[in-house]
Write the structure tokens for this entry.
Amino acid sequence: MILLRRATLIRNSISRATIHHTSARRQDKVMASVLFMGIGGDDPSLQLTPNVSSQELNAAIDKGSQSLTDAGYKVTLFLPPMMDGIAALEKELQLNKHDLVLVGAGIRLLPNHTPYFEGIINTVLKYNPGQRFAFNASLESTLESVQRVLPL
């Protein structure tokens, strides 16, 4: 199987750049698509713990995304800056439909991210009523959390 990786830069109307990364395994059948929404290690709004660098966080996010791809999911890794995240998410949802939205633990577990988390859920439901969600407890549990909700 050939692993295809494509990263493109999408400009949003706020003139901030959002990294939009998709990866998929080429197959004859239609693949289940996952929008993996998280906070990248380079986001200025993110407060990292002292023992985790932004490079380590980004590497762990890539590893979680790769585990989904290896399992047969079509993955869109979506890490907009939090300050522009809801506007970028609206554009993504207008352009693409996903079988599942995975919201990363970094968004949900920190109390100061609660308004952002609520905004994500409400925005997704506005554009896709009935959307299925998954929530990982850590980057290591990404595949397990998706398989619970959207088994292949």
